[in-house]
Design brief:
Number of helices: 9
GO molecular function, one term: NAD+ nucleosidase activity, cyclic ADP-ribose generating
Catalytic activity: NAD(+) + H2O = ADP-D-ribose + nicotinamide + H(+)
CATH superfamily: Toll/interleukin-1 receptor homology (TIR) domain
Low-confidence stretches: 7-14
InterPro entries: TIR_dom (IPR000157), Toll_tir_struct_dom_sf (IPR035897)
GO biological process, one term: signal transduction
GO cellular component, one term: nucleus
Order of helices and strands: HEHHEHEHEHHHEH
Length: 177
């Protein structure tokens, strides 16, 4: 789906329960200054109100209530999976909340696999497995199992694998006049 098709779908609903049309989830160290900045700008150019957390460094132990409200108040979540996305419990907690909103509120979730194979996310292999090796030493298995379920569910959704698209970013940002 090109951005022009997505913008029509995202704009077609006038559901007043949504403060944001899109919640953009990404690991800043991996994609800030490149893909997610381009995506954010393209969505805004199309008039799609998009929430992007600009915090460079996460503080505290839990997702802030403001961030939870932004997730709950969004119609669509775009999750940009990257090599190090699963290395942060913060993003994994964010993912669990997004997938919960998908199940309970009908939030549309669109995964983008940027510089990572979707099967690594789905099966928790490669860099995802490395991240979980550390998580499993630090956190209860109930917490890590919830993260794994959320990763599998999100990776099974229809989305974009930028590794297999020729000129992947150009196809995503294609905007018709």
């Amino acid at each position: 789906m090109a951005l022009s098709n997505f913008s029509h779908e995202a704009s077609s609903s006038s559901d007043s329960n949504h403060v944001w049309k899109v919640f953009l989830s990404f690991r800043g160290e991996d994609t800030r200054g490149s893909f997610t900045d381009h995506l954010y700008e393209a969505l805004n150019r199309r008039g799609i109100r998009t929430f992007r957390d600009d915090e460079e460094l996460r503080r505290g132990e839990e997702i802030s209530s403001e961030l939870l409200k932004a997730i709950e108040g969004s119609k669509v979540a775009i999750i940009v999976f990257s090599r190090n996305y699963a290395s942060s419990r913060w993003w994994l907690d964010e993912l669990v909340k997004i997938m919960d909103c998908s199940r309970t509120n009908g939030m549309l979730v669109l995964p983008v696999f940027y510089d990572i194979d979707p099967s690594d996310v789905r099966n928790q292999s490669g860099t995802v497995a490395e991240a979980f090796a550390g998580h499993e030493m630090r956190f209860q298995s109930e917490k890590t199992e919830g993260w794994k379920r959320a990763l599998r569910h999100a990776a099974n959704l229809s989305g974009w694998d930028l590794q297999t698209l020729a000129n992947g970013e150009k196809k995503i940002f294609k905007v018709s006049s």
